Amino acid sequence: xxxxxxxxxxxxxxxxxxxxxxxxxxxxxxxxxxxxxxxxxxxxxxxxxxxxxxxxxxxxxxxxxxxxxxxxxxxxxxxxxxxxxxxxxxxxxxxxxxxxxxxxxxxxxxxxxxxxxxxxxxxxxxxxxxxxxxxxxxxxxxxxxxxxxx
Length: 150
Prior knowledge:
- With 150 residues, this protein is mainly alpha-helical.
- It has one domain (36-147).
- It has helices spanning 2-32, 35-109, 115-147.
- Helix 2 packs antiparallel against helix 3 (115-147).
- The longest helix has 75 residues, at 35-109.
- The chain is rod-shaped, with a radius of gyration of 47 Å.
């Protein structure tokens, strides 16, 4: 039994010696490395990680801001479209009133030789007024649709 014990003891000491020898040579290999290249490598790795993180953060924020800008532009466009429509409607109404006033003035100040001449004149004026109304409405519709990009 003591021989076995001696054998295991020698085997254990030998294994421990081999482990120490291997471990010691690893430390020597690390100690032999150039400290400058080790630091440069570490800084390069950290720099690349930082750049990647910055780029990812910027991309995320850019997407958020682009989305926000699109939403705000849609709101502004709808608001502008509504204001333009209101302005166009108001202007058409004002022009139609002015046209009617001028037509009434022409009728009042025009002398007719006969009732037939008066009727022909009124029919021609009605045609002109209706054409003017139609053109103003078309122009208003075109102005509103142009502002929306249609």
